[in-house]
């Protein structure tokens, strides 16, 4: 039949059945996990700001806050919690001007001046902590991480296959289909296709960085272990006990770094203190340079400095900032929020389209049976 015989309109182009079906079933398989990840991830983009507004509204980092003050407060914290007790801390910084103490999955925030616990709106802090744990492992540990990795791989396939399905009709792209004024379920596929095509670069970035991080954790690292240097401290700093002494030794090994995570642990009948540092100008606000101090022998294991790493390792080190937006410029973080909202919208419109088709099929079967 010619175009003239159909009133000048071309017959609809058939969908590529195989790819379209794979896209459909992959979307249904990952739908709930992707929707939950989108919602939780969108909130977590601004979790630090939410904490500052609700829990620590008046917290500031004193201009003269120094390594000496950190060591002194570490000594106080160790005394409060009992010498020899494992401790996991995040040190204050300009963006988070308070001590963060981790107890399992719970967080405790401490004022700098008094080391007292912040008491306001702790329910919001607990909710944000829960959302983070849910986003990282679905509250089920390794099983949840494995499911997230699987769904991340499916999401990469969905993004690429969706672009391939949209490409033949790309000239029909219209902005009004991206965010419709009046939602109509029957047009959910149009909303899904146009919005997906528009945000596909952001989705690819989010899915790829998240999947690679999980792959490294669950399957195999992309790069060999970080090179380390072992040093022996001839004389540990006198007059400073425990974790504060270890911190002074670690800080001396990375004099231009600012501490991020500080924790103590026991292994093979020895006690260790691990300090992670952020170097000047480093993208990753948590830093990627660490020092492990053997509290019993004074031996230091110093990792390769992140500013001296290969380009490949530097790229791998930026996976977390690129995925979460943590420490990135405001514009980039806004794009990450848009990505989360778009993913939730795509999950909803894709699910709505499938449900509409299923309902129509069921109604036709019932009509035929009658």
From TrEMBL:
Which keywords has UniProt assigned to this entry?
Membrane, Transmembrane, Transmembrane helix
Query: Is Lipoprotein set as a keyword in this record?
Result: no
The record's section on InterPro entries has: PepSY-ass_TM
Spans traversing the lipid bilayer: 22-46, 147-167, 195-215, 334-355
Domain of life of the organism encoding this protein: Bacteria
**What PANTHER family is this protein classified in?**
IRON-REGULATED INNER MEMBRANE PROTEIN-RELATED
Q: What is this protein called?
A: PepSY domain-containing protein
> Which organism does this sequence originate in?
Parahaliea maris
Provide the taxonomic classification.
Bacteria, Pseudomonadati, Pseudomonadota, Gammaproteobacteria, Cellvibrionales
């Amino acid at each position: 039949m010619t175009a003239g015989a159909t009133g000048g309109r071309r017959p609809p182009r058939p969908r590529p059945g195989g790819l379209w079906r794979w896209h459909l079933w992959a979307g249904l398989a990952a739908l709930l996990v992707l929707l939950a990840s989108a919602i939780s991830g969108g909130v977590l983009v601004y979790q630090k700001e939410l904490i500052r507004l609700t829990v620590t509204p008046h917290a500031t980092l004193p201009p003269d806050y120094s390594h000496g003050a950190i060591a002194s407060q570490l000594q106080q914290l160790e005394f409060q919690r009992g010498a020899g007790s494992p401790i996991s801390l995040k040190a204050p910084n300009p963006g988070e001007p308070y001590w963060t103490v981790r107890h399992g999955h719970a967080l405790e925030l401490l004022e700098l001046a008094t080391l007292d616990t912040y008491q306001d709106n702790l329910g919001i802090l607990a909710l944000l902590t829960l959302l983070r744990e849910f986003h990282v492992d679905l509250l089920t540990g390794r099983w949840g991480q494995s499911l997230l990795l699987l769904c991340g791989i499916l999401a990469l396939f969905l993004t690429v296959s969706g672009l391939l399905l949209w490409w033949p009709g790309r000239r029909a792209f219209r902005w009004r289909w991206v965010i419709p004024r009046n939602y109509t379920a029957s047009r959910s596929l149009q909303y899904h296709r146009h919005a997906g095509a528009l945000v596909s670069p952001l989705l690819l970035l989010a899915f790829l960085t998240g999947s690679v991080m999980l792959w490294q954790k669950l399957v195999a690292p992309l790069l060999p272990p970080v090179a380390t240097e072992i040093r022996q401290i001839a004389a540990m700093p006198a007059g400073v006990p425990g974790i504060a002494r270890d911190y002074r030794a670690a800080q001396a090994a990375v004099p231009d770094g600012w501490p991020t995570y500080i924790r103590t642990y026991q292994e093979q009948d020895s006690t260790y203190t691990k300090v992670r540092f952020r170097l000047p100008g480093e993208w990753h606000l948590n830093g990627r340079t660490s020092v492990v101090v053997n509290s019993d022998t004074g031996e230091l294991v110093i990792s390769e400095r992140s500013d001296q790493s290969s380009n490949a390792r530097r790229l791998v080190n930026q996976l977390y900032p690129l995925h979460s937006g943590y420490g990135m410029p405001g514009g980039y973080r806004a794009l990450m929020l848009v990505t989360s909202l778009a993913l939730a919208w795509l999950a909803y419109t894709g699910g709505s389209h499938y449900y509409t088709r299923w309902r129509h099929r069921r109604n036709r079967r019932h009509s035929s049976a009658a």
